[in-house]
Amino acid sequence: MMAHHTKTDLDTLAQNLWQQYSGRELKPKDRLAIPPQEMPSQAPDERVANMDEVALGYTEDQVKVESLRCLQCANAPCVKGCPVGIDIPRFIAKAAEGDFAASVSVIKESSMLPSICGRVCPQESQCQLTCTVGKSLKSIDKAVNIGRIERYVADWESSTGKRENPEVAPSTGKKVCVVGSGPASITAAADLRREGHEVVMFEALHKAGGVLVYGIPEFRLPKRIVKEELDALAAMGVKLEHNFLVGRTAKLHDLMERDGFDAIFLGTGAGLPKFLNIEGENLVGVFSANEYLTRSNLMRAYDRKKAGTPLYHSKKVAVFGGGNVAMDAARTALRLGAEEVTIVYRRTDEEMPARREEIAHAKEEGVKFLYLHAPLKILGDEKGKVTQVELITCELGEPDASGRRSPVEIPGSEALYDFDTVIVAIGNASNPLIEKTTKGLDVNRRGNIIVDEETCATSMPGVYAGGDIVLGAATVILAMGQGRKAAKAMNAYLAGREESA
Amino acid sequence: MFTILEKKKLSAEVFMMKIEAPHIARERKAGQFVILQQGGDFAERIPLTIADADTDEGSITIVFQAVGEATHRLGTLEKGQAIENVLGPLGQPTHIEKFGKVVCVGGGVGVAPMHPIAKAMKAAGNDVKIIIGARNKDLVILEQEMDTIANELIVCTDDGSYGRKALVTEPLKELCEQWKPDLVVAIGPPIMMKFCTLTTKPFDIPTIVSLNTIMIDGTGMCGGCRVSINGKTKFVCVDGPEFDAFAVDWDNLLTRLGTYKPQEQDAHHRCHIGLEIKEGEA
Question: Which of A29, A95, B137, B230 lies 20 to 30 Å from A480, alpha-carbon distance?
Answer without folding.
Answer: A95
